[in-house]
Amino acid sequence: MGEAAKMVAKILHPHFVKEEEYAMPPLGLLPLLAEGKVTPDMKDVLAMTDKLKAELSQMLTEHREIVAALQELIAAAKKENKMKYVSFADKLILHAQTEEKVYYPTTILIGEYLKQKVRK
After folding, report:
1. Which of 5, 8, 10, 39 has its CA 20 to 30 A from that of 83?
2. Which of 41, 52, 42 is nearest to 18 (CA)?
């Protein structure tokens, strides 16, 4: 199980760095955007949203690799009857799915929305 956990960590770390760099920060604008507040300085996130849009395919490929590693961890944890690690891995898989279906598309939409609003 230890080797499977190390593999998950090895794959996750560079992916998390990318998410922290450009995939997640634009989401911080959501409360203001939901209130209809758009300011010129918000255009600073466009580089991030454009980068995510350009690299979305790679991010999704990384998710598939992460999920495969997590499934290996689940199998190893089940063999050792360490169910808390199974639960942990299941939650990470769910988190990846949430990123794919909610966070990444929302980040991209923020960029597209701001391109229209900041231009005016």
Report:
1. 10
2. 52
